Amino acid sequence: MEYLVTLPNSIVLNVSADFKGKGQECMDQVCQKLGIVEQDYFGLMYKGRNGENLWLNLRNLLERQLFGPPPYRLQLRVKFFVPPHSLIQPATRRLFYEQIKTELASQKLVCESEEQMKSVVALIAQSENGNFDKKTHQLNLYKNLMTGIAEPTPEVIHGIVEAHTELFGMSQESAQYKLLHEASVMQNYGFEYHEAGYCNETITIGVGPTGVCLYNTNMELLEKMEFMSITRADHFGKTCVLKVMNDNGTRREIPFRLFTQLAGNAFYRSVTEMHSFFCCDTVNNKVSTQFSRDLKGTLASLFNAKTTLGLDFVFDIKRTSREAYDHARRLLHQPVPDLDLVTTDDDDDDDTLISDKDTLHCDTEVMSTTEKCQVLEDTLEKIEDSFTCCVCRDAEISAAMCPCGHLTCYDCAKRLSECPLCRDEIKAVQRIYLPTIQSKDDTCASISLQSVSKSPRHYGGQAAKKAQCQKSKKRKMESPETVQGFI
Known about the structure:
The chain is of the alpha+beta class. The chain has 16 helices and 19 strands. It is about 40% helix and about 20% strand.
């Protein structure tokens, strides 16, 4: 079956995939044609029966999601807008750049000041047209670039010309990266919007990397809820309910009525996946295993609980932002096959391979002894931080919360009713003990990371003298005369 996939720059790709297969097969072919390894940041979007913008669930069958006659039309879009410094591949940055341009033109992204607007248009002009030229026709290009961003008044265009002149000599890649950086500091960067009914009014709900925002019909901010204050999200048909904890410790429920059941499912999925990707260390098992069944599958499950008939997964998120970054780096730093053995008929594919290979070997410089010591110190600090309680940031971890298994110190665990990381209810607290190291003289010594990571020179005054006295006492205890006295 053929699928027409539209890229952010309006280029259409033709891919083939089994209609009875899963959506991941179609996504893999698109990313393979584009040479993209950082696949976790993107998704395939399609239109629902009532015009809803829906994300294709890559874990479910294509025939259970798409409708109508072939060829089916999909859109490759950025699903999770991570900071630009987290993007490794140039191809990924280009797709992010094209998506940002589209959202600026459609006013999903709004510049917060006139200076920022001039800088954004100048960077787009530098990326699209290169260095500033005094030819008359180039002034008309600014008006086209400003469509949807600002009104092309003579004063504004003059300011853009000055900003563009200052970018003389900047490469296309650098201009695109700086534009991503400018967009990443905007308040609505990475938000996707849903229309819903709330308190007998129609509002717009924005779901982004930091939380959920409510806007009126004029896109004026009504309320902002951080993910840390949202304790739970429930979905019942067209209705989605967010349970929020107020600043004073009280709880409240905010119901939203979406216009269709598919729109309600899309909003519930957006909130959960955004929270999992940006706020969690790993994807919760409850998220990855949640599913629904149709009537036929429900009847079949009465006789066989393990049947996959009529089963649809609710979420398709596989990794968090940190896991996606680490996964991409591991894939990009794998050994590359010899290019002489690769034969392709398309010159564009050869260019993609060469650029990827250059990217892979960009960090293979030999480190000096000082740099190695610095890397070891940084690693030790990270290890120390991982063994520190995430609540009080003072004591070492000494308790595990059941059933989620996250770790804190024992004093903080006794005071908590919900896990601060995954919001699961704490049913029991299990005390844990840090590992010990077996020394050469067959005596066990418990390791304190705070004492290991800091040598005596880091302490001053009485602390240094105390550490020196402890060492001298230890030497006396290990001397032969002391041993004979004890015997």
